[in-house]
């Protein structure tokens, strides 16, 4: 890879991150969802949904790992979301120190709305693109994020 290509990729990633951190982007996703939580709460909802297998929800530790945050940070967010009836936290029968999480109907509805809004933004952004380009971009972004995550997930 040339130095120029590396700089261009770094600039593109940086630009994407800035675009998705703008207050107007966050407002578009969060406005009208019917709760006071922020983008971090939506990330927690998404993590719980992604990590749920069958009827077994993830632990707080699994959510923290998925989000790349400290256990205490995830725990505080989750406790707030349980209080707001977005998540249910149930103590495990086999290990009382562990708790499993699941989405409530309200939490699931908020996640669906936020996901729909995020996908609307993406759809508008790639409206004039050819389908193979969108498919290739999704494949390459997934490959890039997986490579970076593998490098730093264990650190």
UniProtKB/TrEMBL annotation:
Keywords linked to the UniProt accession: DNA-binding, Transcription, Transcription regulation
InterPro entries xref list: HTH_MarR-typ (IPR000835), MarR/SlyA-like (IPR039422), Tscrpt_reg_MarR-type_CS (IPR023187), WH-like_DNA-bd_sf (IPR036388), WH_DNA-bd_sf (IPR036390)
Tagged with keyword DNA-binding: yes
Top-level taxon: Bacteria
Gene3D superfamilies from the UniProt entry: Winged helix-like DNA-binding domain superfamily/Winged helix DNA-binding domain (1.10.10.10)
Domain HTH marR-type, first and last residues per copy: 1-146
Protein name, as recorded: HTH marR-type domain-containing protein
Organism per entry: Brevibacterium daeguense
Taxon lineage: Bacteria, Bacillati, Actinomycetota, Actinomycetes, Micrococcales
